[in-house]
Design goal:
Helix 3 packs parallel to helix 4 and helix 4 runs parallel beside helix 5. The chain has a 7-stranded parallel sheet, with helices on both faces. The chain has 8 helices and 7 strands. The relative contact order is 0.16. The protein starts with 9 loop residues before the first strand and ends in a 24-residue tail after the last helix. The chain is an alpha/beta fold and 283 residues long. Keywords: Oxidoreductase.
Length: 283
């Protein structure tokens, strides 16, 4: 499996002004990317990242990825000003942690689905035709979640958005292979809770520590280069996926709730206050 060499390449990251998005930007710069394109809704933090990223040409775009119009406009500017991304990392996301009937139609259901599920599709669709030209080795990374593999109370809308992301992302991988565009490899990322502040207050799962942003970003970066299809971490996430698919539903529910403690992890959820933020917690 061939690895992509990032020297001289263009890397685009959404939700890039802080947190894990910023860590991806740092790695791109360290690996010799010529252009690092940062999308985020927070203009001030974008300016800070621009000033601090070393040894590369940084291009900052203030983009609300919940808006298709904003995505189309920003993508057109990137293609005209910078060129075709060689690596696209769909990292931006938000979370709502409450029972389904407590969700507001607009600020919860609509917004979560637009940012977590639709935005990666629209962003990728805006760049993919250009990325498919020329047979160049390219990568797409879609940050999903363990919540897109295993259901959980008080995560119904969030999990729905991430199940959609997982299904779309891996189907895209197969479509590219099937149609002779295997040079563009898609990696779908499914971590459990990460210590970014996004899932402040969650309880831990049996044998599953809260992941550090650095550990997740490092592994994603390592898997992205050869284009491995999935990053599922930690190992207990893969175990949960297997058990859910093999055990009878009632048996799995009992194990998930009373043995692993998955179904109670959101009971004390607090989250992070503020507007749309880049995030890769249990996504």
């Amino acid at each position: 499996m061939s690895k992509i060499d990032l020297r001289g390449k263009t890397v685009l990251i959404t939700g890039a002004a802080m947190g894990m998005g910023r860590l991806y930007a740092d790695l791109a710069a360290q690996d010799g990317a010529a252009h690092v394109v940062l999308w985020d809704i927070n203009e001030d933090l974008l300016a800070k990242a621009d000033a601090e990223l070393p040894d590369c040409d940084v291009h900052c775009y203030t983009v609300d990825v919940s808006s298709l119009e904003a995505i189309r406009d920003a993508a057109g500017k990137v293609l005209a000003d910078v060129g075709v991304p060689d690596v696209l990392i769909n990292n931006a996301g938000i979370v709502r942690g409450k029972y389904f009937w407590e969700h507001d139609h607009e600020v919860d259901i609509e917004l979560v689905m637009r940012i977590n599920a639709l935005a990666p599709m629209h962003i990728t669709r805006a760049f993919l035709p250009a990325m498919m030209e020329g047979g160049t080795e390219r990568r797409i990374v879609n940050i999903a979640s363990a919540g897109g593999l295993v259901s959980n109370p008080k995560m119904s809308v969030y999990s729905a958005s991430k199940w959609a992301a997982v299904g779309w992302s891996d189907s895209l991988r197969l479509e590219l292979l099937k149609t002779g565009h295997g040079n563009i490899k898609v990696t779908t990322v499914c971590p459990t809770y990460i210590a970014t502040g996004m899932f402040e207050g969650v309880k831990t799962i049996l044998m599953t520590p809260i992941l550090t942003p650095e550990a997740v970003v490092t592994k994603v970066w390592r898997y992205m280069k050869p284009g491995k299809p999935f990053v599922i971490m930690p190992w207990t996430t893969q175990l949960g996926k297997i058990l859910k698919g093999t055990l009878p539903t009632r048996a799995w529910d009992l194990m998930a709730d009373r043995v692993f403690g998955i179904y109670g992890t959101m009971d004390s959820f607090v989250g992070r206050e503020g507007r749309q933020q880049p995030t890769t917690g249990k996504r």
